[in-house]
Amino acid sequence: MKSSLLPCAKLFCLFTTVACCSDAVAQYDGATEAPVRFREGFESITEEDSESLLSVLAGADFAGRGTGQEGFMKAAQWFSQRLAERGFQPASEDDSWFQFLPFNRTEIDVESSKLSIGETAVLTGNDFGVENYFGTFDGKLPVTFARVTKKRPELEDGAFAGRLLVVRSATRINANDVLIVKGRPACVFIVDRDSRVRSQSVSQLERTPGTVPLAKLGVTMANKLAAACEISDEFFAEKNPEKNQLMTSSSEADVQLNVEHESIDVPNVVAWYPGSDESLRHEHVCIGAHLDHLGLQQGSVYPGADDNGSGSTSILQIAGAIHTNTHKPERSVLLMAFCAEERGLLGSKHYAAHPLRPLKDMVCMLNIDMIGRNEESDKEPASENENTIHLVGSKKISNQLHELTMAANKHVNFVFEYDQEGVYNRSDHASFAKKGVPITFLFGGFTPHYHKPTDTLEGINFSKIANCARLDYLTLMMAAEHGHFEKNAGDDAKDNQ
């Protein structure tokens, strides 16, 4: 359900324009002037700067900023340099911009992995996805194709011995599955939805490789293989199987699979802007956004312009506004660009478990994620969301922080929506909320480009990025004056740990 605070006639003219010789900024129609003490920084935030910064973050050099990939490391270095230009200092104990997290990276070697039928190359290394296996396999195998339900088919011992099993299962397949233990295949390709097949996996789990070579195939590639084996180009479907079916091919597949595994360190970018009041400087307001996206997968780049190049752009603009403004925040500012949000909020969880400053001194945490596009669905065109933003979780821990955010918004005039509380645990603020830190989360909503290679600069609303920066800049500066917020009674307002 939508609520609009603007007359319909004004929906076609939501913004004031930025003139090259004017002090005006493009906040939404009906907004009031920013407080004088914050105005210098507020007016330094421009749509042109949003576009310039995001063009770099979503550009080819950073290749989608995948955690554990070269593009992310380049982006982290670039981001820290921009923070230094904006007057921030390294926040890590060793005078570093980085708080490193240990990860394990498993990756298909695309150059040495392939599958052929006779002389015909059917699959390349970019077509395979990682599973719970690393090592090398090379062999020529007859092929069995299978669709299986939760209730597995009756199998003879060694039913798949010496064979490649290509299987779509209604439930997850693991090393103890009857298909593997009793069927004893020489190699297994697990078929999954195309969107869930990744050529690289980065996680903090210690993994013991399975004894049977495993890889993933998307439905599209699995059907291509089935067609090459003269089974059917529609044998596998996106939906889970509803009945068991096994099909044996007379074709022999030449399988070469090479999956590499190594330990790596990946950083959160952590930066500090000392407060102007020495007696309050130990307390701090936190602003954050995740820097990572899906990166390079199966030969395709996922640029992540909206997710979350937009939020990363916005916090850089906030950093610049803080430094530009003559009136400095009384309490310090901790700014973080997180790694591995797409892997389960791992970067922010790590910081919350290993804080560089005491969490009891964190006044609040402001999170920005996916604010570069107008929310869009089959039932809701993007044109209806030029001036809307989801304000998520702002009342869960402290109504005082919510009211302060509402006061800051008078100078931007977003139409807030509150129908996406279901994403409350899906972005980095959740790691701090679980420690009792009051939070706000600005979220633009989902679009058809979510987690797709089409999340490019095309269609980005740079005014929305700039206005999110303006809003959270004011919220941050006001919170730095306010200090600790009174917490609501209840489970969501537990003490910081």
> How many discrete structural domains?
2
- Assembly state (oligomeric): single chain
User: Could you list the spans in which at least 5 consecutive residues all have pLDDT below 50?
Assistant: 1-24
Global structural class: alpha/beta
User: What proportion of the residues is helical, as a percent range?
Assistant: 10-25%
The CATH superfamily of the largest domain is identified as Zn peptidases
**How confident overall, as mean pLDDT?**
93
| Overall CATH architecture of the largest domain | 3-Layer(aba) Sandwich
CATH topology of the largest domain: Aminopeptidase
The helix tally amounts to 10
Query: What spatial form do the alpha-carbon principal axes imply?
Result: elongated
How many DSSP E strands? 19
Beta-strand share of residues: 25-35%
Q: What is the C-level CATH assignment of the largest domain? A: Alpha Beta
Radius of gyration: 26 Å
Largest sheet descriptor: 17 strands, mixed
What sequence of helices (H) and strands (E) makes up the elements? Answer: HHHEEEEEEEHEEEHEEEEHEHEEHEHEH
Euclidean distance between termini CA atoms: 37 Å
Describe this entry's structure for a reader.
- This protein is α/β, with parallel strands linked by helices and 497 residues long.
- The protein has two domains: 8-96 and 274-493, 3-Layer(aba) Sandwich (Aminopeptidase); 107-262, Glucose Oxidase, domain 1.
- The protein has helices at residues 36-43, 47-57, 70-85, 178-181, 219-228, 305-324, 346-353, 399-409, 429-433, 462-482, and strands spanning 89-90, 98-108, 114-117, 120-124, 128-129, 135-148, 164-169, 187-192, 200-203, 214-218, 245-273, 284-290, 295-297, 300-302, 332-338, 362-369, 388-392, 415-417, 439-443.
- The strands form two sheets. It has a 17-stranded mixed beta sheet that branches. The protein has a two-stranded antiparallel ribbon with strand order 13-14.
- The longest helix is centred in the last third of the chain and has 21 residues, at 462-482.
- The radius of gyration is 26 Å and the shape is elongated.
